[in-house]
Design brief:
By secondary structure, the protein is an alpha+beta fold. The protein has three domains: 167 residues, Rossmann fold; 82 residues, Uridine Diphospho-n-acetylenolpyruvylglucosamine Reductase, domain 3, CATH 3.30.465; 117 residues, 3-Layer(bba) Sandwich (Phenylalanyl-tRNA Synthetase, Chain B, domain 3). A six-stranded mixed sheet has the order 3-2-1-4-6-5, sandwiched between helices. Helix 2 links the parallel strand 1 and strand 2. The longest helix is centred in the middle third of the chain and has 30 residues.
């Protein structure tokens, strides 16, 4: 582990604060031991982050083990239990929750580094899996030794070492660790590569992990060069609405693919294992087709959206639907309000006048529902709300937040700012309700 200690010595400064992800297994306990070797001489502040996934019988025992190790070495121990998994992909959901916890700790302690115990074998497995399932240049490079975020950097100091190196170090120093028996189950893809492919590669060359590290670094350099070119390109064909579709269609096949991969990598950063060729090809197909508006669902609640002449990736807010009872005033998530006023001379679609004897109270304000129709004033028939939003060129990502005003029987009376129904009264007719839609 001399190589790792030399690297840590060159990286760390006195009084640095480090969050280290520690499971209790040989890899993380090895890294923790190495950091403790430097703790006193450098005045390091070490926060040990342990996640109990509640999936194995020994989980509680491992948590106690890591906590005692922290007490022995005078380290801060932070603990989290995952009590519920929401994703069909348990591994993905667990990883997401882990890193949310780690990020919270980094912010809490103003840490400079988040360290994980990924090693050289992990890198080989990651590269092979991504080559098999399809990815991008960035994805094929596996993961970086150092990954800088805005306020901290993820560091993987053991990337130059193998699992065998780590076990040997732990045994030589008489250090205790726990083994996760699920690591041997061939149910998991990574374990199959670990059990069947890695032994063959290491038999061919015991230092094969160094070759894969070099491969990873070479791909990273190529990708960085390409990303700088794409970044400059996008500055010329983008604005606040997104990337211009008509400009994307002018690009050759290779460059278009790299632009799409670049937009995905900016979203998923170190989660590129969630993205593969299928997502990239679907987005390229969406950009090239003649549909005015379309979208593609992506992992972790994102959507790739084509809205008229623009392409972009947006976060889906699963809590965006709402329904309010309207009495005097309702404040909406889009920072607009619908309120009752005593009088108004406005005749635009931002104001509606209603006769309470012709509708059913109370009034409701909600988000649109599948199949919504409105009987538009002076049109003489119903029209789908979806078609109105298309006609009005409302961006795809904003359509689910458009307010719909109904009576208690769910009859649509008004699409504030867009269309009024036949229930809107003229200023010289009888009405007793005036509603105004405006900024808060």
């Amino acid at each position: 582990m001399k190589r790792v200690l030399l690297y840590l010595n060159s990286l760390l400064k006195e009084n640095d604060t480090i969050v280290i992800a520690t499971s209790g297994g040989p890899d993380s306990m090895c890294l923790l031991h190495l950091l403790c070797e430097l703790k006193s001489s450098m005045g390091l502040k070490i926060i040990v982050a342990h996640v109990n996934h509640k999936l194995r019988k020994k989980s509680e025992e491992e948590a106690v083990f890591v906590k005692k190790a922290c007490e022995k070495n005078n380290l801060i121990f932070e603990y989290m239990e995952i009590l519920k998994y929401n994703d069909d992909n348990l591994e993905n959901d667990a990883r997401t929750k882990r890193y949310e916890f780690f990020n919270q700790l980094v912010l809490k302690y103003h840490a400079k580094y988040l360290m994980t115990a990924h090693h050289g074998d992990d890198l080989i497995e990651t590269i092979l899996m991504r080559l098999t399932r399809g990815s991008s240049l960035k994805g094929y490079s596996g993961f970086k030794k150092e990954l800088a975020y805005e306020s901290y950097t993820i560091i993987r100091p053991l990337i130059t070492e193998t699992k065998e190196d780590i076990i040997a170090y732990m045994q030589k120093n008489g250090l205790k660790y726990y083994i996760d028996e699920s690591n041997f189950s061939l149910q998991y893809t990574r374990n199959r590569y670990r059990a069947k492919v890695l032994p063959f590669l290491k038999k061919e060359d015991p230092l094969v992990h160094h070759k894969y590290l070099k491969f990873s670094e070479e791909l990273t350099n190529v990708n960085n060069f390409l990303e700088r070119y794409i970044k400059d390109l996008l500055e010329n064909i983008s604005d606040k609405k997104g990337i211009k579709i008509n400009e994307l269609k002018k690009l050759d096949k290779f460059l278009l693919k790299k632009v799409v991969e670049y937009t995905l990598s900016n979203i998923y950063i170190d989660d590129l294992f969630l993205i593969n060729d299928k997502h990239t090809n679907l987005i390229i197909g969406m950009i090239r087709n003649n549909k005015t508006n379309s979208s593609i669902t992506l992992p972790n609640n994102y959507q790739a959206i084509k809205s008229y002449n623009y392409y972009k990736i947006v976060k889906i807010n699963k809590e965006e639907s709402y329904e309010y009872t309207l009495k005097d005033k309702v404040t909406l998530p889009n920072k607009m309000v619908i309120k009752r006023v005593k009088k108004s001379s406005d005749k635009s679609n931002y104001t509606i006048r209603l006769d309470s004897t012709k509708i059913s109270l109370p009034l409701k304000v909600r988000t649109r529902e599948f199949g919504d129709k409105i009987e538009i004033k002076n049109l003489g028939g119903h029209k789908k709300v979806k078609d109105i939003l298309i006609d009005e060129k409302i961006p795809v990502e904003k359509r689910n937040n458009i307010p719909v005003v109904t009576d208690s029987k769910n009859t649509i009376l008004w699409l504030p700012g867009l269309k009024k129904s036949k229930f809107d009264m003229e200023t010289d007719q009888i009405y007793d309700i005036i509603l105004l839609y405006e900024e808060e």
